[in-house]
Amino acid sequence: MSDLWKRRQHAHFLEMLKYLRYVLNDHFVIALMFLVGGLGYGYSNFLKTFHTTSWWAGPLIIFCLVIILQIGRLASLLKKADPVFLLPREHDMHAYLKQARLHSLFFGICIEILGTAILFPFIVITFHFSGWQVAGLGLALIILKFGELSIELNQLYQNHTFIWWLWVGTRWLLPICWFIVGIYVNVWLAVILALVQSFIEVFQENRQWTTRSLNWHLAVTIEEQRMLRIYRFFNLFTDVPNVHGTVHRRKYLDGILSMINRRSNNTYVYLFSRALLRSTVYSGLYFRLTLLGMLLLVFVPNLYLSLFLQVVFIYLISFQLLPLLVNYNENVFTHLYPIKNAIKIAGFNWLLARLLIATSLLFAVVVGISNISLIQAILSLLLGGVEIWILIKLYFPGRIKKMNS
């Protein structure tokens, strides 16, 4: 089982590196540098003007610590065929899963160290903690993470009843209590309490796995869902074969489709609109990126950085919606339509332009409200309009020509 885990870990590492080559391209790295620099500059200015008497500082720190704790899940790297081929070795699977827990803990520790480092100046300014005290909070995070991963490992074994209040208590309520103790009472007492909770969770896991069978279906399903979330992130930058969208009827959206005039010139406008509304791939990408862009713009007060972020997100949304153009290419009936390809492209551009305009309007509203500035909102709207015109009229015709060739 140790050799199996090492092979799968190596294969998983190579797969992640393959996709990261597309994510960390020159343009994205430059954009990321500007984003991190702008956020760091804003954070620095916030700390300079922050009043230590603010009542909300403590709850905000506790909330951030608990959110950091929730990042990262047990990576079992199980495959669909494992229930068939590994069933005779089920008893040995616990050793495999323990290695998976250590693997997951390593990445969890990296996230928690990064999160604690970001919160470090805020905690020091607010509560006048020493470096060792902040390190104690980070240590409590790591200890709680190990216990959390042990709970996830234990859930993979047959459990006929799901006790939701126990799940909420161990993952949310108890960590909140320990961080309240650490912030307002004593950091090292919080570390001891976290250690006790983690010890109980590990003891429970070691005691129960010997008397229960592994729930193969649940274990494979959880791993597939975890990998799907990773693939969806990579799908923002490149095509990922492992991402397969589902189609939903969504009858409540028929009112939107009924607004489209179903003339022959609008055939593809209707088809593309229907595919967008019913497919989780296209609609999910559009709404996720739009909401993420709006959320980031709320916390970016700098005018130039907010305009830069808007340009990046509008480009990302438009780039991710390009595959919608060839969505019906493998449908033989669409090739029977007596409709020229130019009408199809015009229909796609019509829909894409309106989606991007809606996004640009939302971005402008968020920028105007968050900065209480009508001028910034107008500048944001004008920049969005110029970018959409450049994309539709100058950039995408060449991309579409390559896609059709």
Write the layout of secondary structure elements.
Elements: H1 2-23, H2 26-49, H3 57-70, H4 82-85, H5 93-127, H6 131-155, H7 164-184, H8 187-208, H9 216-234, H10 254-258, H11 267-278, H12 280-298, H13 303-321, H14 341-371, H15 374-404
Helix pairs in contact: 2-13, 3-5, 3-6, 3-7, 5-6, 6-7, 6-8, 7-8, 11-12, 11-14, 12-13, 12-14, 13-14, 13-15, 14-15
Explain how this protein is built.
The protein has 405 residues and is mostly helical. 75% of the residues lie in helices and 0% in strands. It is built from 15 helices and no strands. Helix 6 (131-155) packs parallel to helix 8 (187-208). The chain starts with a helix and ends with a helix. The mean pLDDT is 88.
- Which radius of gyration do the C-alpha atoms yield? 25 Å
Count helical runs.
15
Number of DSSP-assigned strands: 0
Largest sheet, in brief, is: none
The SS-based structural class is mainly alpha
Give a short summary of the structure.
With 405 residues, the protein is mainly α. The chain is built from 15 helices and no strands.
